[in-house]
Amino acid sequence: MLVRAYAAPMRAVMRHTSAVPAGVRWKSTKTATVTQTATKPKTETAVANHEQSRDLFGDFVRPQVDGKYLVSDKEIRIAEPQTPPEVKEYGTEQAPNYATTWSKSQRPKAEAMKGPRFEQVAMEFQPAPLSAMELISNVPVQVTTQRVVSCDGGDGPLGHPRVYINLDKPGPKGCPYCGIRYEKRDEHPHLVP
Fold it and tell me: Which domain holds residue 117?
């Protein structure tokens, strides 16, 4: 009995799909609507076809066929991905305190904030962290008398791997990890004759 209960809907589906006339297909246009042709006024044959389909398939009414295409008077709307205009306009600055990118591999924020992840995101409510590049430029240059200095970025897990910076050439040299600048000052100024 259980097998018949499962088989009955399958038979109805098989009857439904086998009754589709050969060569009938959907035709869509660029605006994703089903092709609308001029619908003919209901005639006696259309009413007879409607009643015949109701007898065959119950309350299901098959769409009208005009030539090779199904005829519909309803527009079918298909969702298309759209990026909100505020996302496109957002990104003129990388950070509130730094206007441009600071790495060769970094994409500008206007290009990075596109696509499906940012479709319905209100960017004015998202965090806008300050750029460390601008903040580190406010740190004064560390003056030393050594020729080589080491930088580990600070205490323990907040730091970075230890690097050694050569200060032989004049001028400040920055740490490649954290950007802290070091400069060597001579203990004995050179005497100029």
Answer: 80-128
